[in-house]
Design a protein that fits this description.
This protein has 457 residues and is an alpha+beta fold. It has 2 domains: 73 residues, no CATH class; 294 residues, no CATH class. The chain starts with a strand and ends in an 8-residue tail after the last helix. The strands form 4 sheets. A 5-stranded mixed β-sheet has the order 3-4-5-7-6. The protein has a two-stranded antiparallel sheet with strand order 1-2. A two-stranded antiparallel sheet has the order 8-9. The chain contains 18 helices and 11 strands. The chain binds zinc ion (ZN). Zinc ion binds next to helix 11. It comes from Xanthomarina gelatinilytica. This is Dihydrofolate reductase. One of its GO terms (molecular function) is hydrolase activity.
């Protein structure tokens, strides 16, 4: 994991990455900063874990690495967390050598608060869900889901970054101690908002839809994620004697589960309960923005990610399509969602949000029935009818309309520059978050101040 194998005079030698070893001068800098971090650890468990990591960097001993991972996994209290070391082995074709990466992250307090409110009320959501009584849990517990904001990244995590972290990799630690899984909230938000609002303007039907999205779209997205994860995946129960869905629903298990969790979110997004709980100040507006966005994406804009002629394969994309296409078709008689053609361009307009809310409820009831009973035939019909095939004319049109918005297939991120503000005694009173002027500027700055290794190691 943390060494390079070389042949010297016909003899194999292992050069270990550690203080005094390979990359030692850079590792000494890591140790210096970790020692400072250990001093301000939020609690003992966090401090002890950092201590083991320092020990590992000093010795390169893989037993210490295991001990560290156990301690890091168990250190779940506190508002700040991190990953730091030679962790993933994707860059080694043989899959042995770890690449250095580090992320420092702070709890997303706003999202945590929203999810706590939902979790505290999980039973209300279960009791009021449009499910058959037999499929409701008598004692439901909200799923724990963690969203953090990245404060800084380096090594393999930068400038191209993951959007989530699920570690440690060692399966025996995962089985014995568990694992930490976090979603990098500000990274995901940045990805979602990259590019201009021109694409949004291209695909919304009217000014009202645009305004709702601009005003409430982000809040609606956040609440949908929170409802999906905390309430959605926790909701419902299997009938006695029915096996797990990967046995009963097989290849459709994950798209059914993701669609069901989405539907729990959609059902409650347009609901005065959210306002009662203090999560929104205008439940109707937030709900409308959420429904507009879901339908627009599920019936049109997610097709941008497919090549013409391809079927929808990915589980989430499938579920967004079968949920949207099902409610579109079932509401057709009442004109719930209207397909509009204007100047050769297609738009979907929601005419009746109350009816759409009802339709989401009906489909939620049906997907929970499929899951509870393990009804393979029904899930196959649902997904194959609504979730896989793409309207070729519409797809070609969407790709054509999207052509004007060029965006790079991969994104790189600059790190915020964190500037401490001190009082007269030299104590830090606040940290100011500033932005570097440019990506090249930041890279040049890094090479000037943090270049600790020779050209050839
Ligand atoms: Zn999910």
């Amino acid at each position: 994991l943390n060494s390079k194998l070389v042949k010297e005079n016909g003899e194999l030698k292992e050069l270990v990455y550690k203080s005094g070893g390979l990359y030692g001068s850079a590792i000494d800098e890591i140790i210096k900063w970790l020692e400072l971090a250990q001093d301000v650890a939020e609690n003992k468990a966090q401090g002890d874990a950092i201590g083991l990591l320092i020990e590992y960097y000093k010795t390169g001993d893989l037993q210490t690495w295991d001990d560290y991972n156990v301690a890091w996994t168990a250190a779940t209290e506190g508002n700040v967390d991190y990953i730091n070391s030679f962790i993933e082995v994707y860059n080694d074709p043989l899959g042995y050598r770890g690449s250095y990466e580090t992320i420092v992250q702070v709890n997303d307090f706003d999202m945590s608060q929203k999810m706590k409110v939902l979790s505290d009320n999980a039973q209300w959501f279960e009791d009021n869900a449009p499910l058959m009584d037999a499929h409701k849990k008598k004692n439901v517990v909200g799923v724990t889901y963690k969203v953090v904001n990245v404060a800084g990244e380096a090594g393999d995590a930068s400038p191209s970054t993951p959007i989530g972290v699920n570690l440690p990799n060692a399966n025996w630690i995962r089985a014995a101690v568990g694992s930490k899984s976090v979603s990098l909230g500000n990274i995901i938000e940045a990805y979602n908002n990259a590019g201009s609002s021109d694409r949004l303007k291209e695909f919304v039907n009217d000014e009202e839809e645009l305004q709702l999205e601009e005003q409430y779209g982000q809040l609606a997205d956040k609440l949908h994620t929170a409802l999906h994860e905390v309430i959605g995946h926790a909701s419902g129960q299997l009938n006695p004697g029915v096996g797990e869905t990967k046995e009963t629903l097989k290849n459709y298990a994950s798209t059914l589960e993701e669609g069901r969790a989405d539907l729990v979110g959609l059902y409650y997004l347009y609901n005065p309960k959210l306002q009662e709980l203090g999560l929104v100040d205008d439940w109707k507006a937030v709900g409308k923005a959420a429904y507009d966005g879901y339908i627009r994406n599920g019936l049109m804009t997610q097709l941008i990610r497919l090549n013409l002629g391809d079927d929808v394969e990915e589980a989430h994309m499938r579920n967004r399509q079968w949920v949207s296409a099902w409610v579109y078709e079932k509401g057709k008689a009442d004109n719930v969602i209207e397909k509009i053609t204007r100047d050769g361009k297609t738009y979907f307009n929601i005419n009746d949000y109350d009816k759409l809310h009802e339709l989401f409820g009906q489909l939620l009831k049906e997907t929970q029935r499929i899951k509870s009973e393990g009804d393979y035939k029904a899930v196959e019909t649902l997904v194959e009818t609504y979730g896989v095939k793409v309207d070729q004319d519409l797809h070609a049109e969407v790709l054509e309309r999207n052509k004007q918005f060029t965006s790079a297939p991969y994104s790189g991120f600059v790190n915020p520059v964190l500037v401490p503000e001190m009082d007269a005694n030299g104590e830090i009173t606040a940290i100011k978050v500033t932005q570097p002027e440019s990506f090249p500027g930041q890279m040049l700055d890094y090479s000037k101040h943090y270049s600790f290794l020779p050209e050839v190691n």
